[in-house]
Amino acid sequence: MHRSPWCSTMQRFRNNPFVLFVMIRALFILTLWIIGIDCIPKSQDDSKVVGGYYIRDISIVPWIVSIRKFFEGEGFAHDCGGSLLTLEIVLTACHCLQGGVRDFEFVAGSVDLENKKAGQVRSAKRIIVHPECVDLDEEGTFDVGVAIMKKSFQKTKFVKTMNILSWNPKEFESKMRPLLKSRTSNCFVAGWGVVRNGGNSASRYLKGVRMYPITGEQCRNIYGKKRKRFRYFDFDKVHQQCGVSRYLNESDCIGDSGGPFTCKGYTVAVVSYGFECGTPTPSVYVTLPYFLEWYQKKLKSKYHGTSSVRRTSQAARVGPFKNLCLSGVLFLTELVSHRTSSFIVTFLSFVLVASQWLS
């Protein structure tokens, strides 16, 4: 049988470890050059955090909000994350909104919690939590709520409303499911949560963690071994989605609650709860279809201003360069893992995104 020159070349590479090493090293350097230093995690801090990487450019997630709560003796301090559903409405977890309107302030447009000059600060005129939000100490059923701002946020490069798959709950569900099943959806969470398991100090800078959705059955099997009440718990029925990191050693943590769970640039869920940060135990997120049903019936007509909404047909996706950054980070992870087949698939995906960016 005739063998193509390409096949012969690849066979020589496989038989020559040194040549293969040189190829991988060259691809590694090329990748660093293309994706830019802003996409690379700060490796010097990796031994001290629950994993993840620093997001230096807020325009990657311009809809994220730091929800700060008033504490006696401390003043306002970061407590939870949130997302700009509209420029007037902050979407977050129900358990993040326990208190009165004067107990909170909302900051958008900055990655640095300590930079008082950056970002836009707003206060709420009303807080509304989902009527079925219960069991806040455990599984946080229907753990969603909204805060209505006294003054709308101003749209800028760094402050924008979240990308939404559809305002129609059923259409949202149909579009969300394929994203959650795909291994190439680049799902991640972002927030200022604590930087180590068992810690109590928020991260000064915004961080992100790549997460992989798993099925409700997989989640039940894991949680059921730790807590009896989860042995027969139906995550899908209460609109909860579980996720784990690639190597089961990274996750969102305390202080990340309420923040966005984003896949391919679209916010599909809200960070709700989890146990044992940075371990194989999954994190749990509340998906948005059920929230949208409640929102459409009870809140939309009163608070949904047309001027502050990014319509589905015009929703700006994460820009090509931002997609390149996310693909680059994934590519580097595969490179380090030494899994050849997975590396090749990931690298081809990276090249595709890179070609789109350079075109």
Outline of the structure:
The protein has 7 helices and 15 strands. The chain has 359 residues and is α+β, with helices and mostly antiparallel strands. This is Peptidase S1 domain-containing protein.
Structure description:
- By secondary structure, this protein is of the alpha+beta class.
- It has two domains: 54-314, Thrombin, subunit H; 319-359.
- The chain contains seven helices and 15 strands.
- It has helices spanning 5-15, 17-35, 169-181, 216-224, 289-303, 320-337, 340-358; strands at residues 53-54, 64-71, 75-84, 89-92, 104-108, 120-122, 124-129, 145-149, 188-191, 207-210, 212-214, 240-244, 260-263, 266-274, 283-287.
- The strands form two sheets. Strands 1-10-9-13-14-15-12-11 form an eight-stranded antiparallel beta sheet.
- The model is unreliable at 1-10, 32-49, 306-323 and 355-359 (pLDDT under 50).
